[in-house]
Amino acid sequence: MRTIAWAGLSALLSILAAIVAPASAEDGYDLWLRYRPIEAAAAADYRMVATQLAPGGASPPIAAATAELRRGLTGLLGTTPEVSETAGAGALIYGTPAGSPQIAALDLDLGDLGREGYMIRSLRIDDRPVTVIAANSDVGVLYGAFALLRLVQTRQPIDRLDLRARPKLALRVLNHWDDLDRHVERGYAGQSIWDWHRLPDYRPELYTDYARANASIGVNGVVLNNVNANALSLTAPYVAKAAALAEVFRPYGIRVYLSARFSAPVEIGGLTTADPLDPDVQAWWRAKADEIYAAIPDFGGFLVKANSEGQPGPQDYHRTHAEGANLLADAVAPHGGVVMWRAFVYSDQAPDDRAKQAYTDFVPLDGRFRPNVAVQVKNGPIDFQPREPFHPIFGAMPATPLMMEVQITKEYLGFSTHLAYLGPLYEEVLQSDTMRPGAGATVARVIDGSADGHALSGMAGVANIGADRNWSGSHFDQANWYVFGRMAWDPEAARARPIAEEWVRMTFSNDDRFVEPVVDMMMGSREAVVDYMTPLGLHHLMATGHHYGPAPWVSDLARPEWNPTYYHQADADGIGFDRTAAGSDAVAQYAPQVGDRFSDLDAVPEPLLLWFHHLPWDYRMRSGKTLWEELVLTYDRGVSAVGEMRRTWAGLQPYVDPQRFDDVTVFLAIQDKEARWWRDASLAYFASRSGRSLPEGTTEPEHPLTYYQGLSYPFAPGN
Ligand code: GCW
To answer: What is the mean pLDDT of each run of 10 residues along the chain (719 residues)?
Structure first.
């Protein structure tokens, strides 16, 4: 009796505690899947459409869809829909024709949805209004469930739906640059979320939530470990750990991949060579693939960084990248796996313009890769700079499936403390027209395979996820994870602004007084970073190693192309890298119309001016100002944009929970300070090169150049 009374009392107490405690803290953990109650008036309408859940079957993805719909609808609408096999009025019927007799009976046309697409329709069955989510696979159904929740979360009507959607890319992959000791290379959100030491047994809820978040935006692959790979991740204990993660992710349609170290046959296999043409090496990789697939039947395949920045690769044996890639491709092919082979290479011997080297190495290999190889090309020819022109390889390897790799983590855009929404950056590259023969080959249409008829297609994002409670290190960096997934789903059609709006509505508030200013702020934020860090086409001006802060003066590193001075070439006469025919002729790697446009001073987009041209300080810009004046003004514009962002955010306090409001406020203050630092340090330096003083009316740098040159941050994160 007493025990029961105690149990009852403590249950009562915890209910009371739940009532008096403020609505669960908004620490960012819930991402865009917050499912907070919607306005009472709207809730009533939505409830009519979602009174009952009628799942087709009980497979893990269908169970995940049911769990998500229950969680989401309960949170949003305040009532928990019952789960029932027979669908009454207001039921949500979901499944595949194969798994659900109710769906099969509807005889829907799902032909064009592919394996992962879905349709959502408002229908009447026996005169009862119902909503149907149908797909050809259970994972497609799960995607549809998330899409339906998104409609409610963004307050769109759901009573007359007729939607069809399917992903345009086969591989929508996050690349984790996570090391086995939980350090994350270029990670600014704490340690790796992969707790390698406690895996495979310990699988915290966090992993399921990670999978939910990815599935909600259509990400279907995860490379678990850093491309600067440790061969140990291919040994049996680590394969078992990867298999544990694969089990957690499988219901969410997510496959795991591993970065493979090319020298693994030597390092962990006891062979004396890793030569791709050596039969023992080939047998070793085949056996390794068999072993991995025995543990992870749906293993995605390998990602490889080879002969780049000190990594081993086929060129160590005088073999080509194609021969290296094909070695691994042959090993995974019998299991349906793929190889993502990175084109991020530049040589320590070749004195050629670094921007040209990947093209020089890879383009001659077009058509020489196995069909299950995708060459993974960074968005631009140098390295994830705040702005780069699109990579010329996109216009030059029609016989090879090309993936695009972008950074979601902001190695060069202010780590996690600067607010920079990357949607506009991704969109700018995807919409760039390569002008290849055969019209309409935008980067989007090259990577989705439609320009050349490739079935293998994909996009990879270097993850910005870590063990920080809010996943990405800052609330607004969650938007970059989100927009990556949404753009990878349909790179041709996706646009940065509506995706930002969707994210804001789901993550913060549907109040237009909040949504509009925040979306505007996000849309301008990447350009602000470009302006205060690398204006007018400048690039690679950051500090050595950790890349935190400005250091355009660095000129003493062992390899020329590691030095910022290599990229800006500023001296008393002028500034910029001449990539025209008179210079490195990198323009020749583009289709003639594109190359001509970049070469022509009257046609080159001014935001790329100094990427392609070396110009005198007095060069007349289109504004009529001199280059020097415009440079100063652009830095200033970047700094004032941050001030504007701070003012905008300060006015939005009534619409945001206190914790996230404060977090963002503090980060914007950091950004403001660092934007000034970038501007002041860079201008102090360029003034010393140009021998000019700042135009009248502009603010002098706060400190002398030597002050900035003396700053040192040995423990900046992510190095
Ligand atoms: O951007 C550079 C980074 C390196 C990274 C490399 C790459 C994983 O500074 O940290 O290494 O690119 O993409 O391989």
So the answer is: 42 42 74 96 85 94 98 95 87 97 96 97 94 98 98 95 98 98 98 98 98 99 98 98 98 98 98 98 98 98 97 98 98 98 86 94 98 98 98 98 98 98 99 89 97 97 98 98 98 98 98 98 98 98 98 95 96 98 98 98 98 98 98 98 98 97 98 98 98 97 98 97
427 is catalytic: no
Alpha helices in 78-179 (DSSP H): 101-106, 138-153
In ligand 1, the atom with minimum distance to the C-alpha of 718 is 10
Q: In this structure, are residues 586 and 701 in contact, taking their beta carbons and an 8 Å threshold?
A: no
The tokens for 616 are 């005198």
DSSP 506-533: HHT---HHHHHHHHHHHHHHHHHHHHHH
Number of H helices, E strands in the chain: 22, 16
Mutate to test the pocket of ligand 1, among 226, 228, 230 (most ligand atoms within 8 A of CB): 228
State both tokens at 33: 């899947």
Q: For residue 622, give the 3-state DSSP assignment.
A: coil
Q: From the alpha carbon of 378, which atom of ligand 1 is closest? A: 13
Nearest residue by C-alpha to atom 1 in ligand 1: 383
- Is residue 564 reached through a cis peptide bond, with omega within 30 degrees of 0 on the bond before it? no
Cβ–Cβ < 8 Å for 491, 434: no
| Pocket flag, ligand 1, residue 344 (CB < 6 Å) | yes
